[in-house]
Amino acid sequence: MQWFKSAMVVSSAVFVAAMAANGCSSSPGNGGDAGGDVKITPSDGSTKDVKTSTDSATCTPTSGLSCEQCNVSGFSPQPQGTPIGPNAGKCQTSDITAFDTACVATGATQQTCQAWEQNATYATCAACVVTDQTAANWGPLVCTQSGCSYNIPGCVDLGLGQKAQENSTSSGSCGDLLNADYQCQDYACDACGTLPDGGADSTDFDTCLGTNSTTAGALNNECASYNNAFEQSSECSALGGDSIPTSVQTCFPSDPNNGFSEQEFIAFVTYFCGPT
Known about the structure:
two-stranded parallel sheet; globular; 276 residues; 33% helix; 3-stranded mixed β-sheet
């Protein structure tokens, strides 16, 4: 199983544009991070600044991309919010289907997505599905002013029954370790993953991470300690091997290289907010 972030990117430009227009949408960077980023243009119309490595005197980007932040000495992972669920009952199946149709499906538009968000019928469901990064509890989508991320770490903790272990003073949870790993990946490679129009550049992000390498990229160098802590921990031992446990299959796309299908996205949202 691949644990790098860009496999978990929400691809719907309609959804992310609507989230941006309503002021709830993220590129978490060094904040708490939920998983694959949704890259969007901020609601003020500005584009994201593209940073280059400012530490060339102390390190050389191993990916070959100048946007790689190869010195992560200033990075410190932030705790994740407690996941909502499982199956919190905040959404009916019809609510989630309506959300998918309005915001994610092929025929969705920015207008239909905004209409779903603003419809009082879906208010309780929307509050569960789309959560702010600063909130104590996170739903399936964790957002700031510039985009949203899938709450993969929270989903893992729900599936492994480790919700109560999160952010503890001892070992914490598997989701905590994955959250820190994803945050480091963001810190090192976020600038490589954003196109001038605010969209997601998954190719350069993957190159920065070194997903197809055993020596180059952030996963094998500046973020190796976080990646190894996740992969080698006893808390995450159930995720070892080639098969994902049934209890957490909903948390990951069946094809990591292409991300969630529409039905997988619906199942993911349902696991947090839907009925049992």
